[in-house]
Design a protein that fits this description.
By secondary structure, the chain is α/β, with parallel strands linked by helices. Helix content is 26%, strand content 22%. Strands 1, 8, 11, 12, 13, 14, 15 and 16 form an eight-stranded mixed sheet that branches. The structure holds pyridoxal-5'-phosphate. It catalyses: L-alanine = D-alanine.
């Protein structure tokens, strides 16, 4: 018996997207599996990606790297994007993780621990993590990868992309022979010139579009479904849910579905949320509550126990995110632990 709400992850689609991104970018993909593979489950996703040939992975935190090392074994390189804060090098060394060094303090911590292989982040204009080019350290032992991150990769027309690319290209010449990685998902589609030696996509591997819409060559990976718990006909003038968020001006057949904000179905779906049910997209009605949401199923042939799709092949993740006033990244990483992940492939 499936759980009332499930997140199904299609690992074949993930594998296909991995290869598609490599083909588009023309250089190897080093998958980003931070935040538990954007909520889809890093153990399953990274294991499959490794079977598809990936040998270098990125996480955000050391704790994520420790878990990933246990899952994947000794072979792959695992980079930790937030680097190595003072006092933390030991934890990274113990799990054979590679910090992406962002500051002089991190570099001192890593050298002090005789840390070995690591990466270096250059800030080419985003003003987030990394050394400004003029402060970048001399090449040092253990340095294997130099990276930078695009601020506007999801806007192909944004002139800042080209500026960041030029800054990166130039600073990278200071580290001859060191692997260069520049592009996240959006950057993959900015080619030519943005690939350098290795790509670092996250969201597009998981089926989301860098521009709020997936490239047609990418497949949906994640499907969030919820069971219909009850169906009722709401008379004219009556309301549905908290705060009378929906008032029926015509008799309305309403399906109460097992997905609420405690599952990660954002309350901000009101008033624009839609779900795929009975072969079509139907509006959510009123407020999303903790455990359930209401959907207009007037005129549809649906029954208790049927499942509605909140996002997946029929309701694009990016469209669902837009309806909730957010982006695919946040929608995926909001799905809570109450929702079991089921894997296909
Ligand atoms: C999260 C992240 C990525 C992946 O970004 P997507 O837009 O999901 O492809 C790549 N590089 C860095 C530094 C990141 O923080």
């Amino acid at each position: 018996m499936p759980s009332p709400a499930t997140l199904t992850v299609d690992l074949n689609a993930l594998a296909a997207n991995f290869h598609t991104l490599e083909a588009i970018g023309g250089v190897p993909v080093h998958p980003v599996v931070k935040a538990d593979s954007y909520g889809l489950g890093a153990a399953a996703c990274a294991t499959r990606l490794m079977a598809e040939g990936a040998r270098t992975f990125f996480v955000a935190r050391a704790s994520e790297g420790v878990a990933l090392r246990e899952t994947l074994g000794a072979e792959p390189a695992i980079y930790v994007l937030d680097g190595c804060a003072t006092g933390r090098a030991g934890k990274l060394v113990a799990a054979n993780l590679r910090p992406v060094i962002n500051t002089p303090e991190q570099l001192a911590e890593w050298k002090g621990a005789n840390g070995g292989a690591c990466g270096l982040q250059i800030d080419t204009g985003m003003n987030r993590l990394g050394f400004r080019p003029e402060d970048a350290p001399e090449p040092f032992d253990g340095l294997e990868l130099v990276l930078s991150h695009l601020a506007c990769a999801d806007e192909p027309g944004q002139e800042m992309n080209g500026r960041q690319r030029m800054v990166f290209e130039e600073i990278a010449t200071r580290y001859p022979g060191i692997l260069r990685s520049f592009s996240n998902s959006g950057g993959v589609f900015l080619t030519p010139g943005y690939g350098f030696d290795a790509l670092r996509p996250g969201i597009s591997m998981y089926g989301g579009g860098p521009e709020g819409r997936p490239d047609p060559r990418l497949k949906a990976v994640a499907t969030l479904e919820a069971e219909i718990l009850q169906i009722r006909d709401v008379p004219v003038g009556e309301s549905v849910g908290y705060s009378r968020g929906f008032v029926a001006d015509t008799v309305t057949r309403v399906a109460i579905c097992a997905a609420g904000y405690a599952d990660g179905v954002l309350r901000s779906y009101s008033p624009k949320g839609q779900v795929f049910v009975g072969g079509e997209l139907r509006p959510m009605l009123g407020r999303v509550s903790m455990d359930v949401c209401a959907v207009d199923v007037t005129g549809l042939d649906v029954s208790v126990g049927d499942r509605v799709e909140l996002f997946g092949a029929n309701r694009l993740l990016d469209d669902a995110a837009a309806a909730a006033g957010t982006i695919a990244y946040e929608l995926l990483t909001s799905i809570t632990a109450r929702v079991p992940r089921a894997y296909v492939g």
